[in-house]
């Protein structure tokens, strides 16, 4: 018998995060393109970001037939938040004439690259990237490299750069609670043995 699930945050009712999810406004629009393999992941941080930002939209799929319309919003310049050749460091005032539409692929690095491959319009977008040296709070998954962040962490950092001095830290509250809940569920010993970086 499966546990009752919250239809909004998709967590078990006993661990619903909705009370922690803020409703934050932003000038920047966020378009999250989520690989289907992430939808039922226990730590679906893209969903948390989409729920917490009034100007965020979450789409799930591998090929997005309506991508042209999604990327060409009047008054917005689309940028792909993804490292790679030619990626510009994201900075305050990155887009001057129009507002910013930040396109964020969500999935493992391999799945995110697949989304770019299957959607050539994405690959053609100008790329922006975050400054190096960020430390993830995602204590349950080994980062593939330095500066690797969860989707919600990357969005918070990007918004805090583009829309400085405004803080979007409230968006991390449900994320932190999610991590703490997972650690609690696995037990302190298991966490220390498999995930803790402390010696």
From TrEMBL:
UniProt keyword list: S-adenosyl-L-methionine, Transferase, tRNA processing
Signal peptide region: none
Domain DTW: 2-187
GO molecular function terms noted in the UniProt entry: tRNA-uridine aminocarboxypropyltransferase activity
Keyword match Kinase: no
Any GO BP: tRNA processing
EC numbers, comma separated: 2.5.1.25
Keyword Phosphoprotein: no
Pfam family, one: DTW
Family: Belongs to the TDD superfamily. DTWD2 family.
Protein name: tRNA-uridine aminocarboxypropyltransferase
Lineage, top ranks: Bacteria, Pseudomonadati, Pseudomonadota, Gammaproteobacteria, Pseudomonadales
